[in-house]
Each structure stands twice: as C-alpha cells, then as structure tokens.
Amino acid sequence: MPIRLPKDAKEYDYEDQVCSLLHAHGYYLETRLVLKKGSEEVLEFDALATPTNDYQNRKVVEVKSGKWGISDVFKLYGQVLYTSENHAWLIHKKSTSETKKKAIQEVCGSVPVTTININIEEVAGSENIPAGLEIPDDISKSIFSTSWWSRSADRIAQSKFREWCKGYAEVPAPVQNAQGYLSDLDECLFKKSPLSRVDALYDAYKTYPQITSSLINYVAENSKDDLKTVRRSVSDQYGRAYLQYVMAQEFRARIAIIKNAYDAILEEANSESKKGNKFTWANIIKTLLPDSFNNGMDALSKFEYAQHVPYFLQVFIEVFGGFYCPTDDRELIQISQATGIPIEKIPEALALLDMFFPISKGWMHQGDGITLLKGIPAYLRGAGCFAREDLYGKDWGDGFPQISWQIPNWHNALYKLLEPSLKVEA
Prior knowledge:
There is one protein chain. This protein has 426 residues and is α/β, with parallel strands linked by helices. It folds into two domains: 27-128, Trna Endonuclease, Chain: A, domain 1 (3-Layer(aba) Sandwich), CATH 3.40.1350; 137-421, no CATH class. Helix content is 53%, strand content 12%. A five-stranded mixed beta sheet has the order 1-2-3-4-5, with helices on both faces. It has a three-stranded antiparallel beta sheet with strand order 6-8-7, with no helix packed on it. Strand 4 (87-92), helix 3 (98-108) and strand 5 form a beta-alpha-beta unit. The two termini are 13 Å apart.
C-alpha cells in the first residue's frame, strides 16, 4: 500500500495556498516570475492569473501573509503598468487597522488595484475571487489540495536543484546549461508581446536543446547507475528531484508557448494585419518561428475551446498527473468538468502538443490500459494519484489494474519529496 499524503493542505505556505485557490477557481497561472539583470533581481511577480472564461482580463497578483500597506499597493500598481495589464489583486491574510483600511480604500479608488482578504484556515474570503471557470465543488476542492501539493513539491525540487548545482566546486557544462536555460525561461516571459515571448522561448531551447535528456545522460555517465535506471528515477520513482524539477520546467515552457500562441491569436484579431497590413512586427517574427509553431497556432485558432487549452494542460499535468484510464468512465468526465473542455474534445486538445512540438510516435503513449503524456516527472504523476484518491477513494487504483504496480511508486515520489516538510501526520 502506498504511504499517503495528509488530506488537508491548509496549514502551509500562504502564497502556494492562494495560487492553488486561484487554480481551483479556473485561473491559468504563471507564478514566481523573476526578472534578473546579471545576478541582480530587478522585478518579481508572485503570479499572473488568467481567468479561463474571461481570458483577456488577467490579473497581476501579489500575496501577503504578513504586514502590508499603501506602499505595496503602489508597488503593485507599478507592476500593472509594466505588464500593460488592466488590474491587480493584493491578496492578504491579515487585516489592517481601521485607520489604514480607510486610507487604502481611498488609494485603491484611484488605481487599478483591489485588496482581498483571504484566510484559508477560516475558509474566509475566497468568495471574493470571481470564478474563472464554473467547476463542481468536489472537483474544485480536489484541484485546490492537489495543486497545493504540486506547488510545494516544485519549491522543494527547485531547492534540490540549487543545492545540487552548489555541490560542484567547478560546475560542469551540462549543469551550467540547465542553470542558463531556467534563467532564460523567466526572462522570456517578461517580453512585451506574445510572439516575442514565443521567440525567446524557442531561442532558449535552441541555445540549450533537450536539456533534461542531456542532464540525464550526464548523471548516468558520472554515477554508478546506468542510463535506464537514471531515466526511471526521474519518470517513475522517488529520487533525483533536481532532474525532475528541470523536466517539469521544460514541459511548462511548452505550455507557455501554446498559451502565448493563443495570446497572439487574440492580438492578431485586433491588429492592423486584419486590415491588410502584412508588415507588422508580429508577422515578421512569425516568419522566423518554426513551421511547427505556425501549424500549431493555426490548429489552435480553429479549436472551438482554444481559450481553455492553457488551463486544461496545466490542470491535466499538475492535478491529474498527465495520465488517464480510457476505460474508466469517471476519468474523462472529471477532467472535462475540471477544465471546461467536452469529453469528446479532450483527445483533440492533447493532440495540439503534436502540432506544436512534433516528435516520433507522438506525445501520448497508449498502452497497459492507460493513456499517458510523455515528459512528466514522477512527483507530478504522484499528484495525479493523490487527486484520484481524493476524488475516488483510497482504493481508486483497483480501476487501473494494468499499472497497479506503478501507482505506489508515483504516489510515493510526491509523498517522499514532501515528507520532511509535512506538518501533520500522514
């Protein structure tokens, strides 16, 4: 039997709580974005939150678990101006004094910033977040708790990666490449237009191609384990969280490309190119991007539920673990209710990955009674196991007999990564 996670994630990191709550309300999230110039951090965003049903009305989000005040409101206003978004939320755990509250309300009446008090331990304030997608309560609760565990695991895996890098007196080239790639991913998302962000994401990949595979090869060459064992430790088991983290970020970069492709579709619809001007910067950038991107963008523009796709991919991976059992009727029903994409359209939504990023034999592996997205680390597979335990009950694995041997490995990959920081009994 697999060891189990606690059911309740309420007592943990407030920023992760809030982001998970937004996720459960139907928001696509870009989190912990840090812009650096050299070694200096210039700008940091807790989150950009895009509501699935109101896609162009995204919010800059700042999360405060402790003290906050008017200076934070003005800081957030500056971030709104920098990103050219329309509005921001300052979500806080502690209320201010009545005197400060009145002054803050007066300031917020003049700037596009709203303050929202949310205390998750008391289940208070979440009703102040507009729904980004109508999701049934039981599934929304599961998205909240599972997303929290996924985000907590990401933070820990990131710290493992940083510790691993610091362990070298002289950092070898493959590890330097991984550091450069992850740093470039953050910078890419600060570009001013969707297609410039896409161009930068592709440039990062060209500069550091197949970064996870090259790291796996390096580790196999410099450890007692062979290549197959190292690959299994990343994809199917607990271990080498530093490699799993890089794998997760590499896949998130793919989702970011698709998300920005949809941003570009919306921008294009309102641009001069629709009036016959073909010599826009956007069109020039498009000619420089891979044919696969343009093919993917075309397919995305024709997909009826295109605005749901970024959120769908995020939830499918971070909550459902990037897999489903096609013979279990509950599976596609739950994924559909969680993401707003009809059951019959889910395979088409997943097929967009093959349009944007064509690979041999495609991104979806079908066999052993399961349909599985390639390139997902074990701890996120474990999140999918936890979500199903939450939704179906502790014996949910009985519906997946062909992979019953693998389920405990995935589940424990998440649990063991989180175990040192768990504050309650499992």
